[in-house]
User: Fold these one by one.
Assistant:
Number 1:
Amino acid sequence: MQDHLSQTFSALADPTRRAILARLSKGETSVSELAEPFLKEMSLPAVTKHLKVLEKAGLVTKSREAQWRPCKLNGTPLKEASDWMDFYRQFWEESFDRLDEYLKTVTAKKKAKGKSHGRKK
Amino acid sequence: MQDHLSQTFSALADPTRRAILARLSKGETSVSELAEPFLKEMSLPAVTKHLKVLEKAGLVTKSREAQWRPCKLNGTPLKEASDWMDFYRQFWEESFDRLDEYLKTVTAKKKAKGKSHGRKK
C-alpha cells in the first residue's frame, strides 16, 4: 500500500486529473457534467478511472447530501504535500537568487561593452 | 512524453526518492555514499534507478565540477509544483477552518454540559 504522501503526488502526476481538480475548484458538480469536456479526448470509463484515483487519494469526495452525489474537491491531502515542499523552498529560492545574480552580471557586462563601443566612435 | 509538472509529481510519489532528496538537502554526495543507507532494503541498481527518475525530472543534477561527479539537489522543478499547489491553498485552509469551528462547538457543548451537571449537585 502506498503511503499518503506518495498517493497524493501520484494522483497529481497526470494533466487530466489536475484538470478535474481545476474544474472542481469552481464548485461541486455531477460526474457526467465533470466528464463532459474530456469526452473529446477519452472515453467516459477513462474519466471515471481518473476520478477514482483522485477519490482514493482523498482529493475528491462524493457528497452524501444530494441524491445525485456531487463530486467535491477536498484540499486536505494537499496540505501535507505543500508542507513537505515548503522544506525545499530554500533550494529553489537559492537557484533564483543565483539566476538573478547571473543576469545582473550579464547586464553589467553589456552596459560596460556599450560604453566602450561608445568611446570608439 | 510527460509534461514537466506530471514528471515532478511522479518523481515525488515514492518514499525512497523523497528520502534521497532529504539526504541531498544536507549537501552534495557521491552515488555510492547516497545509496549506502538504502542497501539494507534494496539493491544498488534499484537505488540508481530511483536516482535516474529524479535526474530525469531535473530534481537531481550531477555536478561536472569534480571528477567524482557528486549528486546535487535542484529545487527549481519544485517551484512549479509549489506554485500549482498554492492555488488550492484556500481549499485546505477552508477545511481547517471548518474543523476549528467544529471543535469550538464541541468544546462549548462540553462546557455547557459540565455546568448543568454542576447545578445538579
Number 2:
Amino acid sequence: MEERKPPYFAVIFTSMLKPGQAGYGAMAEKMASIVSQQKGFLGFDSARGGDGLGITVSYWESRDSIRAWKEVLEHREAQARGRDWYGHYNIRVAQVEEDRDS
Amino acid sequence: MEERKPPYFAVIFTSMLKPGQAGYGAMAEKMASIVSQQKGFLGFDSARGGDGLGITVSYWESRDSIRAWKEVLEHREAQARGRDWYGHYNIRVAQVEEDRDS
C-alpha cells in the first residue's frame, strides 16, 4: 500500500503453506476480492517465498473495521479451513505510528 | 516469530527488488546477522515472491531499540544503497496490540 498518514491499523498475517494445496489459490483470490469491498479497508501487501512462508499485511481505518472483517461469512469459512492449508500461522494486530515511502 | 505477549513493536518493510541485483543476497544475510545482535530485537519474518515484492517484519521491545538499529553503521550503509536495489520501498513502525499463533 502507498504511504498514508498514521494512525491507522495493520493486520500482519504470517503463514507456512503446506505443499500441494489445491484450491488454495482460488480461495486466496476470493478473499482478496471480498476484503477490498470491506468498510475501512485501506489496502494490502502480500508475498510468499519458495520455502512456503507467506506474509500478508492488510491495512485498516480502525479496530472496528478489522473486527467486522473477521466476522464476514466467507472469511469465517476460510478461517475454518486454515488447518487444512497451513502448518502454522500467526495473526498480529498493530497500530501504525510511522509510514514513509521511498 | 512465535507468539509473544503484547505490547511490543513491529517494523514493516515492504520493497520491490529490481531484477539482477548482484550482492543483494549477501547484504541481506549480513543485515540479518547484525540485527539479531541488537538490544531489544525480538525476531523477524521475511518473504519475497516471484514478482520481486518482499515483506520483512522485524519485532522489537521498544521504539528506542528501533531507533538505535536505524543508526547502526552497517545498517546506514545498507540504507544508503536502497535506491540501487529497490524500485520502491516503504517502512512502517507499528505497536502490536494482539498476537495469536495457530
